[in-house]
Specification:
Elements (H helix, E strand, L loop, with lengths): L1 H15 L53 H8 L2 H31 L12 E4 L15 H6 L1 H6 L4 E4 L3 E3 L8 E7 L6 H13 L3 E6 L9 H7 L27 H9 L4 E5 L23 H7 L25 H13 L10 E5 L5 H5 L3 E2 L2 E2 L3 E2 L12 H14 L7 E3 L8 H5 L4 H10 L3 E5 L58 H4 L6 H14 L1 H5 L1 E7 L3 E8 L2 E10 L4 E3 L1 H4 L6 E7 L8 E3 L3 E3 L4 E7 L14 E2 L6 E2 L4 E2 L4
Parallel strand pairs: 1-2, 1-12, 2-5, 5-6, 6-7, 7-10, 11-12
Antiparallel strand pairs: 3-4, 8-9, 13-14, 13-21, 14-15, 15-20, 16-19, 17-18, 17-20, 22-23
Helix pairs in contact: 8-10, 14-16
């Protein structure tokens, strides 16, 4: 019996051992060296077995849950209460993703692009031969420009525009180019240019340069080859005996020149004289202009030797056959496409401006391009620089003419002078310098300043100019007036290529930077205000009124309960009752800036605002009733789509 009981216990113990679960095996890697043969543990051991009592579970019977078999899982998952919610959630997820993608595309499509660098601040145009001479030879140069970059940054300039510096005979000072890939020796070397580009970019500025695709010197290789009827260059120029029997001629390959300078780091171009790119094939003579219609700046230099019926100057003809011919804009678009190839890097958009002096406002606007065909970012607006009889009406006409004719969504610009125009002070008078600068910094768009206009430089006198030069456009190119030292600080040499202005002892940078009421100080305050106030750089422009004396307009922006009211007087002294003219204006407003700096920061009673001749005020007041929201001003307010304005959503983004 004892033996049977022992067998039964042995069988029971074996039955309780179950199966080994590898998931619970521990200390599998037991090294044999862990057992010391000399230790007691290595000797014979007595096996002991614990017999579980009634009701106590054996730990070895507890196995991990192996999961639901596949057949059972499919049976449950196919039931409607599980299948339907799963399918609903799946399609909701798909719909949400598609909706998110569609919303993203829609927002990108209808949201305006933020301001580009050429919109964000003023441009400063430099005639390089007259800005600063670094080597005492009397001619301004590229190193001289680099030496004065710190001064340019004090003006809060964003873009430096350097006119033609190509190797040239300098006969007409800009256009007689001999080689578009070389720097004229009087300006320096290619290394000097590369250093200048690097220095400009280090200052956070951009650089644009002139490019004249139609004109070359008679010493240019193309001209010499064309004169000798060499290959494809035969018809690069118009020769009297030229014929077109063999088909349409191919224009010169100026695209490679564009690529050359873009690869040097140039940020954009001013394309000059584009209207002359093509000529009519029939080569007929052009009709003569009435003598009284010749521009005054040209007539002045010709008046003593201009016979009644003799044509001696280009301006004496109507240029119906040699300007703005059919196909010209196709070439301009191809220039734009070439530049776009270099605009693909983030932050490296390449700017394209065009100069087409003498064209009508309608012809000028074509350079903006078509809705889906891009040309210039803007044609340079030189209409203010031709204004010689200032009044509220004449200034208003220039502003409204540009804004009303400009294609929708484009960006305006405003110039007060240039190398081919009479300087602002000589043209309008000293008292109008400050109010004109205030005008261009408070209008919508990019203000453009010709060097020296910020200090009120004048044209030099004709009697002081060497008669060997073509004096027609020379008087506005005199050396920059830096201080009251010899040669106005322009050069340390014994002579300068042109004489300095006779007033340089008092009209210069060094004197004006220490005078709180100088033209330079006001210019710096205006440019700083333009940079810091969204109302001026991107806000709505609402035109209020004008008369023969003054012009009034506001700048405002959704989300900012502040308005700038500009009151600029181009006529005689005036007394204005602003309270009658603007219904929601407070009785007292603050003068943010005045052309008379003594008034800046003061308050003025809007019932009686007195303006002296040539005085301008930027008034500031708070209101929630913005003019562009009022029906009465619906057709008198302007904002460009380029200013982060969405016409679809009627939102002007203040944080763009």
């Amino acid at each position: 019996m004892a033996e049977d009981k022992s067998k039964r216990d042995s069988i029971g113990l074996k039955a309780k051992e179950g199966q080994t679960n590898n998931g619970f095996v521990q200390n599998e890697d037991i090294l044999e060296t862990d057992l010391d043969p000399s230790s007691p543990a290595a000797g014979p051991q007595h096996n002991t077995v614990d017999i579980l009592g009634p009701g106590e579970p054996d730990v070895k019977d507890v196995r991990p849950y192996a999961g639901m078999p596949k057949e059972v899982l499919f049976q449950f998952s196919g039931q409607a209460r599980y299948r339907i919610p799963r399918e609903v959630l799946f399609w909701l997820t798909v719909a949400s993703v598609l909706l998110l993608i569609a919303a993203t595309i829609a927002i990108i499509a209808i949201s305006p692009k933020c301001l580009d660098w050429w919109q964000a601040g003023p441009m400063y145009q430099i005639y390089p031969r007259s800005f600063r001479d670094s080597n005492k030879d009397g001619d301004g140069d590229l190193k001289g420009i680099q030496d004065k970059l710190d001064y340019i940054t004090t003006l809060n300039i964003k873009t430096v525009w350097i006119t033609s510096f190509y190797k040239s005979s300098l006969k007409d000072f800009r256009h007689a180019v001999e080689d578009f890939r070389e720097i004229d020796p009087i300006f320096g070397t290619m290394k000097d240019f590369e250093n200048l580009v690097a220095a400009i970019h280090d200052k956070g500025l951009k650089l644009i340069i002139d490019f004249i695709p139609n004109h070359t010197s008679d010493k240019h290789a193309w001209f010499q080859w064309s004169r000798n009827r060499t290959g494809k260059y035969t018809d690069y120029y118009i020769w009297h005996d030229c014929n077109y029997e063999n088909g349409t001629t191919i224009p010169p390959n100026n695209w490679e020149i564009i690529q050359f300078w873009l690869s040097k780091g140039v940020d954009g171009f001013s394309f000059n004289a584009l209207q002359y790119l093509l000529e009519a094939k029939h080569l007929r003579d052009e009709a003569q202009v009435n003598k009284t219609q010749i521009p005054s700046i040209i007539f002045f230099s010709l008046r003593h030797h201009l016979p009644e019926d003799t044509v001696t100057h280009y301006s004496q003809l109507h240029h119906d056959f040699t300007t703005t011919q059919v196909g010209m804009h196709d070439i301009v678009r191809s220039f734009r496409q070439t530049m776009n190839q270099y605009s693909r890097e983030p932050g490296r958009y390449r700017f394209m401006g065009t100069e087409a002096h003498g064209e009508s406002i309608t012809e000028t606007m074509v350079y903006y391009g078509l809705p889906f065909i891009q040309e210039a970012d803007f044609p340079f607006n030189s209409y203010l620089s031709k204004l010689d009889k200032p009044s509220g009406n004449s200034v208003s006409e220039v502003i409204t003419s540009w804004l009303e004719n400009m294609p929708e969504g484009k960006w305006p610009n405003w110039m007060t002078g240039g190398p081919d125009n009479v300087r602002l002070t000589s043209r309008l008078g000293e008292k109008y310098v400050n109010v004109m600068n205030m005008l261009v910094f408070t209008l919508p768009g990019t203000p453009i300043t010709y060097y020296g206009e910020e200090i009120g430089m004048r044209n030099i006198l004709a009697a002081n100019v060497n008669e060997n030069y073509d004096t027609g456009t020379l008087f506005s190119k005199s050396p920059m007036q830096w201080d009251n030292s010899s040669n106005a600080g322009f050069s340390e040499g014994n002579h300068t290529w042109l004489p300095t202005g006779s007033d340089y002892h008092t009209v210069n940078v060094d004197v004006q930077k220490t005078q709180p009421r100088s033209a330079l100080k006001l210019y710096q305050e205006l440019s700083l205000l333009h940079a810091n106030e969204l109302l001026l750089s991107r806000g709505w422009f609402c035109y209020l009124r004008n008369d023969n004396h003054s012009i009034m307009y506001t700048r405002e922006l959704d989300g900012i309960n502040k308005v700038f009211l500009m009151v600029l007087n181009f006529g005689e002294s005036s007394l204005l009752n602003l309270k009658e003219m603007i219904s929601n204006i407070p009785t007292r407003v603050r003068i943010r800036l005045s052309t008379n700096s003594a008034y800046s920061g003061r308050e003025v009673d809007t019932h009686a605002v007195t303006l002296a001749s040539g005085e301008g005020l930027i008034l500031e007041y708070n209101t929630r009733n913005l003019l562009h929201r009022q029906t009465a001003f619906k057709d008198r307010c302007f904002v460009s789509n380029r200013a982060c304005y969405s016409r679809v959503l009627n939102i002007l983004y203040s944080l763009c």
